[in-house]
């Protein structure tokens, strides 16, 4: 197997310069993120088309040797970093993380469901999850 240094590549024009497996757009931090979410190596191999066991071995070696870099890349992604996708040097799309919804006052939700149950003529104990979901679409 080639050394990790040759198996993992970093180029400025691919994935923002993040470490990738071979010459693909499969980021090492993305694989590490899957692992942190609890996926096993076989599950990761099933989820990522074109990935081989040797690729994973090289990625895990890279993660062990570059833990701070990988942690930083995962944190930046989770923080909602914008990613600009280019084709032929021209921007074609921008990926942004979805923003978390505004915090909701739980008391307002409880009052809304109490009012809903009064309108329906039944107690909250009789309200189904489907009822709650349907009613929630109004807020």
Share of residues in helices: 40-55%
Distance N terminus to C terminus?
56 Å
Low-confidence stretches: none
Number of helices: 7
The pLDDT mean sits at 79
Numbering strands along the chain, what is their spatial order in the largest sheet? 1-2
Tell me the radius of gyration: 23 Å
Sum up the overall morphology in one term.
Answer: elongated
Structural class: mainly alpha
Main sheet makeup: 2 strands, antiparallel
Describe the structure.
The chain has helices spanning 4-7, 28-36, 41-47, 53-65, 67-78, 106-120, 129-136, and strands at residues 8-9, 20-21, 83-87, 90-95. It is mainly alpha-helical. It has a two-stranded antiparallel sheet with strand order 1-2. Strand 3 and strand 4 (90-95) form a beta hairpin.
Features:
single chain, 139 residues, mainly alpha, two-stranded antiparallel ribbon, two-stranded antiparallel sheet, 7 helices, 4 strands, 49% helix, 11% strand, elongated
Short description:
The protein is mainly alpha-helical. It has helices spanning 4-7, 28-36, 41-47, 53-65, 67-78, 106-120, 129-136; strands spanning 8-9, 20-21, 83-87, 90-95.
